[in-house]
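Worked example 2:
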Amino acid sequence: MSVTSTRAARAGRGESAFQRGLAVFAECLLTGVWIFLAALPLVTLPAAVAAGAAHLRRHLRHEASGWRQFTADWRTAVRRGWLAGLAGWAGLALVWADLAVVRAGLPGGAFVGTVGVLAALVAVVAALRAAVSWEPGASWRVLFAAAARRTVLDPAGSAVLVCGFAVIAASAWFAAPLLAPALGIVTAAALAVERRRAA
């Protein structure tokens, strides 16, 4: 069934714009749970986000999408994506070391800590943008390099994603189980940011 006919069928069932929006929101929450489960090994987080973004793209195009397709995308993305995940956790460890310098009160520690935190934010935003841009066969290194440029050249979009990370943190602080669905919301936000940038 084509996208046009699917939309016509939905309109024929009397779905309002609010109902369609609510359905997309629910799909984002479900996708966040899938991403959380696929990212439990930690180094598989980029691959999980990539698979979640691919699922949401298919859902928005009214194509067949479900757990089976998500799992297939995750398996493809994780073949090289685990290296990106490992590099990300290594970078966060360096930031933690920078913050330890700040806490130790060494000269210049505040400057080093500030630079470290800002660099970490840029890297995490770039990693998210790279993950949602992933397609089978894409090089993670090329994706990250292009995403890093977009992160710097599109400060408004990057700021939106930083706010998304704040939502994740607030959700986890309020109630830890909310962390999982919040991942889907941030992935959807990253997709929207990338689509706006492309437009």
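Helices lie at 3-12, 17-38, 45-60, 67-104, 109-132, 140-153, 155-174, 179-198. The radius of gyration is 18 Å.
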